[in-house]
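Entry:
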Amino acid sequence: MANAIAAKEPLRGAALVALTAGVALATFMEVLDISIVNVSVYTIAGNLGVSRTEGTMAISAYSMASAVMQPLTGWLARRFGEVRTFGFSVLLFIICSAACGLSTTMPMLIVFRLLQGAVSGPMVPLSQTLLLNNYPAARRPLALSLWAMTVVVAPVFGPILGGWITDNYHWSWIFFINIPVGLFALLITYMLLRNRESKTVRLPVDGVGLFLLAVGIGCLQFMLDNGNDYDWFSSRMILALGLVAVVCLTFLVAWELMHDHPVVNLGLFRSRNFAVGVFCLSLGMFAFFGGTVVLPTWVQEVMGYNATWAGFTVAPIGLPAILLSPLVGAFQNRFDLRILNTTAFAIFAACSFWMAGFDTQASYLHLAMPRMVMGIGVALFFVPVNQIILAGLPDNEVASASGLANFFRTLASSVATAVSTTMYTHRSIYHHAVLAEHTGRGAAATTEYLDRFQQLGLQNSSDYAALNRIVDMQAGTLAINDVFWCFGLIFGVAMVAIWFARPPFASGGPGH
């Protein structure tokens, strides 16, 4: 049974600005919480008296619960209404954030992070839906650009903000800062959208699909978050998690395709533009986020940067993205969106190959410049690809489409984190072994280095320790070069794949 709500005119003027600010801040807050804890894990673990491995559970719990809930967004929105679901999600997120900050033991923090991730799942996709539904049709690309800007910039500034708060205040404030932001977003949403609720339908609960989704995605996310620490499939636990994830997700696909009221609307992939757009979004996010993860690791291990300056190394990408995203959103309808995405992937690929040439003598400016240029590609990537994903879909499927697309974006980021760190570690070991073969006592280069060390007063084991440090630095540098070469090639694949989408790309049009 559906309760029809009269169609409302789009918001304009100050009301539209206020809604954009409130929804964008809610999006920023949710995405920020994925990365803001990363740099604080050491401090949190030490403060609560646990190991770093146990501390990372605070990260895994949030990501796992959020990933499970994102595909459920469409079902929740149809059952309870988009505005109501978004409002309750924000309210519960505020409560869980306060509980996280007040936690006094690691089990408490993990439980509240799990709840925080679960209630946050619908926030990002529904923020996109609410903006699109309340913007004038001609300005919907601008709404998408503002939304995409917050989703991209938040993970970049998360580590910087988290490190600064942890260094200067108590780690609990990385959670407490969500409270005023969330209250503002909740107040704005209630004031402007309380009479603009979407239609609701009493749908039966797909219990089997929900169970398969929760177990499958939960096991997959936990495996990705912890695989590198346990040496992947040499660990029985990781192997078991992988097998359970494969079985559950395989059965989930079959079950959802046959169910009359699926908890995850896989039928969206029948839309050519949705399928191509999600594929390219996943490819782009994999290579983009993988570089964002592995670069700070390298500059800390090899270049000697601290956590704050490692954050500043990746942060320049945010400046062009902030400045250009609104412009791209305003003018993208004058161009073929495939051309804009191709240009973005070309910029990403060029910058990846640029970073594949890093050496141990690189200055901060040399490290930051390619990230700055990549910011141009960010604006040309995220805004048009989200328009392509939603092209041709009716308004009542936007929430489901946004939730499913954001799930694949989140999953691509998780896979990228696991793959990039594993690749960096394994290639470092490989290059160290190759370089070590040429550092025997009889080698000319080794003799030259040892003579220099002896002139500096280093003798016996000290000179070999110094030499080993040099080998480690060169091996790590060669490893990150390999990683960025791979990412450059992946962006090249995305340049081709985006051309399988076809116009028109206006939302609500045919495009199937």
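Residues 204-260 form one domain.
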